[in-house]
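Tutorial handout. Part one gives the primary structure; part two gives the three-dimensional structure as tokens.
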Amino acid sequence: GSAWAGLLQTPREQRDDERIPPGRQTETSCCSENCTEEEYEEPRREGLVDFDFELVEKTKRNRTTIVDERQVVLERTIGTTAARNSCLSASQGLVAYPAGCVSVVYSVKKNRQRHVLNFAKKSISCLRLSPDARYLVTGESGHNPAVRIYDLASGTTGSNYGMQVAELFGHQHGISCVAFSPNMKYLVSVGYDHDMLVNVWQWKSGTKVATNKISTKVLGLSFSENGSFFVTVGNRHVKFWYFDTDKKGKQLNTAHPLQGRSGILGEHRNQCFQDVVCGRGPANQKTFCVTHSGQLVEFNSQRMLERLVNLKATQATSVTATENYVICGCSNGIIRLFSPMSLQFVCSLPRPHPLRVRIPSLNTTESTAVNASDNFPDVVSVVIDETNQRLSVVYMDHSFYIWNVKDLSQVSKSKSFLAHSDCVWGVETCPTACGDSKCLLPSGTFITCSDDDTLMFWDLDYGVETTNVYCKELQRVIHVDESREEEEEEATISETEDDSSSPPSDSPDGELKCGIRVVKLNPDGQSLACGDKTGNIKIYDLEFMCEVLKIEAHDSEVLSLDFSHPSSGH
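Part two.
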């Protein structure tokens, strides 16, 4: 729900000229065999000339014929559904992250998105790029989830980026972590806490070579540099897993028991370990973890807790490592770097934009200034691409940053993208002609409303001038709960001055958000209206971006509204 995709319709003449690559596998199934599109005769299209959307004709319960799948192409996604470090991966200049049931592969150099579509329509719960960035593995959530491996070097035309080369079933309900071994021969998948399974696959042959049960929810997974073991962490859980790779080099035909050894935690056995990374280079015998209480922990080659460092943050969420640094993501936008050999502090990276940032007032000077009263979004996941020395970070408000850490004395922001921090409820487009009066929004602008109490104005035309240094596509932001906060502040002041007792507020702490459900633009382009879950309708003037009218219209949420056309006289 927090990420949404833009659709681009291709011209009909272009679609007629395109041909389906011969032998390409589709989602069509016939009995128990996979068939290609060459084996199906395209149905006649008489009477369907006026339709410009994908037509799916269900002939049998288990058989679907796709008439034409090239009419709608996914062009851009805004936002991400990455919830932890297992949902972000970077390698060879590519960054991969989930957006619902779509895996976004972003090229930092080309500033371009490519999309791997999950035709099973299941949400992506985790993913990982292979060390050479050729393959992408994803894990799903839902009933009978699959581990899917895509070859990113094939099927790169249109929306068919990444051809599925393997599909592995061995979990129930969902998959929390996946990872390739350093030699890319093996693949590890960990199920949800209800599944309690750790599986090791020879993914090219589809063979499960090792498996075992696990008794807790796994939050992080990391392979050692030589691939001899991998580590899983979770609540009161740090475990080192070893499996026999068949010393004679023969393939294993049956799944052998996976050997696991718990880390020796001592007095820290009750900690919740959020993420893990195995050391690189000279520190390849070390393993680093971060805890929910804000500590960096080092384990030696004997699985013993050797060092512990206080990160001076409320909590830590993610960790990644290179040969020279251990990088920890923490709350309030804090990212700290340490030496992997001694765990001595090196530096802290710049923080992102403050929460409730006001887009129109930004400029290059103001955006770098940090006030003591500013609050920043927590770091959700952090990964580094050692080849290009780019650090990719996803924050709690679903913003996405790429930092250039090649020179720590001059850390700079390479790219940054903002998005809604909660589910998107509606999209409103700005028409090409806004009636008789002049529209205050550029043509092509669209507006999104979200449960995070914001209205965001987007324009994907990069030629449009913007003062937003954090996200070029985002033109303006309206925080619809500002009036409520002002009313609460005034009420607090009046209560203090009156010094009189008053009954407690009926609104519980969990119901502070307005929760915008719908947005509608006035046909004259001068104002817009939005409705929230409490039944209120608010009118905003687009010239000054301020609230001009509030209507307490309903007792429950407003799900639809519209303006009368100016020509109607109403």
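Part three, for discussion. The radius of gyration is 26 Å. The helical segments are 12-17, 364-368, 482-498.
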